[in-house]
Amino acid sequence: MKQETRKEEIISTAAKLFKEKGYSAVTMRDLASAMGIKAASLYNHISSKQDILKVIIISLAESFTEGMAVIQSSNDLCLDKLRQIVKLHITISSQNVYGMASLNNDWMHLEEQLEYYLKLRHDYENDFRNILKQGIDSNEVIDKNLDVMLFSMLSTLRSLYLWIPKKEDLNLEELAANLSNVLINGINK
Amino acid sequence: MKQETRKEEIISTAAKLFKEKGYSAVTMRDLASAMGIKAASLYNHISSKQDILKVIIISLAESFTEGMAVIQSSNDLCLDKLRQIVKLHITISSQNVYGMASLNNDWMHLEEQLEYYLKLRHDYENDFRNILKQGIDSNEVIDKNLDVMLFSMLSTLRSLYLWIPKKEDLNLEELAANLSNVLINGINK
DNA sequence: GTCTATATGGTGATAGAC
DNA sequence: GTCTATCACCATATAGAC
Predict the structure, then answer these.
(1) Full domain range(s) for residue A156
(2) A30-CA/C8-C1' distance, Å
(3) Where in the numbering of this chain does the HTH tetR-type domain appear (chains A, B) (predicted)?
(4) Per residue in A161-181, pLDDT tens?
């Protein structure tokens, strides 16, 4: 188990606070207090509040991009690719529940990296849509409401960070199977 | 068409700004500037920034509670009740896209009304869960993963405010039918 | 209904001692 | 690596003139 550097400690503490109140409502004094030090001391490890947000969001966004690239390059059936996307979201979300809150809710407070983030997100959604499209072409997926399907799946997957920490003794493999099943087959008997 | 009072004008302008940057990041100067007046002038119409947030969130939360009460009291089949819940979310979200952002993302900044809001939300989720449970008992809904189904449907419905404004020429009746279909029957062929 | 002026306190960040 | 002290600025909100 690699031990956290002081900088990583600051970043994960910040992510936790950002999840509770959002980036703008968390002050450097709040963060310092949660670490048991004074605000000025934070600046020995990080260069600015903005820098913390950047690290949290961009590293997560790039994880999704990398995961999607792997899924895309496979020759699996579309429905299997969709199951892999579900797995990707569950894995990343469960490993960084706090950071996912910033990725979802505080991206608009990015400064230098805003456009880069928006491009990553846009490309990710496009790749997701293309997999659904292929599923329609190969007769695996219903040929109706492509955008509604994409919106529904993405909304659910993006909310996992809110839901995962509320379930105790959660088996991630089981969750992936169950959630894939609900998203693909619906809820009716 | 009822014309907006100055107070209502302030509240709907605030909701728009809150959606873009979140409650904490919007200053009274931002809000005043968007209205074309000075910050001090706002206080002739509203008593505090907090008061604006309270009005936006509580009125929406109560709308959902009222809608759910109507749906619950009917004798319709469970799947029909679920379709009505979808319709309820689409109707409220499309009428108040900006306010829905605060309801979803800024509720933690409520002060006096925080507990009241949490109770409304908790009761709403409970009612939703009970409808699904009844659907299982009446053999309309698969008897598996109740919590996963609830989470998935609620996540999608709570994200409608992000998605509705991106679609031009959106027919709400059609969206309700299509979204219900995707949520109930899934996406596979 | 809006303004200017102002009170009071919080904000991110830096300098320099230990 | 942390501290105290401090800077320059921004926050919500009020008082009182027009």
Answers:
(1) 49-185
(2) 20
(3) 4-64
(4) 999 999 989 999 999 999 999
B171 CB near a chain A CB, below 8 Å?
no
8 A C-beta contact, residue B35 and residue B10: yes
Query: Å between A96 CA and D10 C1'?
Result: 33
Calculate how close chain B gets to A8, using CA atoms only, in Å: 25
Whether A25 contacts B27, CB under 8 Å: no
Give me the helices (H) in chain A, please: 6-21, 28-35, 39-42, 49-72, 78-95, 97-105, 114-137, 146-158, 160-163, 172-185
Average pLDDT over residues A128-139: 97
Which chain B residues in 91-110 lie under 8 Å from chain A, judged by CB atoms?
105-106, 108-109
Distance measured from the CA of protein residue B88 to the C1' of nucleotide D5, in angstroms? 57
Residue B166 lies in a domain: yes
Q: What's A135's domain CATH number?
A: 1.10.357.10
Residue A27 contacts strand C, CB under 7 A: yes
Place of tokens 């009222």: B66
Number of domains in chain A: 1
Task: Give the nearest chain A residue to B20 (CA atoms).
Answer: A108
A41-48 mean pLDDT: 98
For the segment A108-132, what is each residue's pLDDT rounded down to a tens digit?
A: 999 999 999 999 999 999 999 999 9
At B7-26, the pLDDT tens digits run 999 999 999 999 999 999 99
Domain membership flag for residue B21: no
- The DSSP bridge partners found for residue B188 are A141
Tokens of A124: 């990710």
Residue A146 within a domain: yes
Q: Radius of gyration of chain A from Cα atoms? A: 19
Say which DSSP state B69 is in: H
Work out the pLDDT band at B171, boundaries 50, 70, 90. Answer: very high
What residues pair up with A111 in beta bridges, in sequence order?
Answer: none
Tokens for B86, please give them. 């979808």
Residue A106 forms part of a structural domain: yes
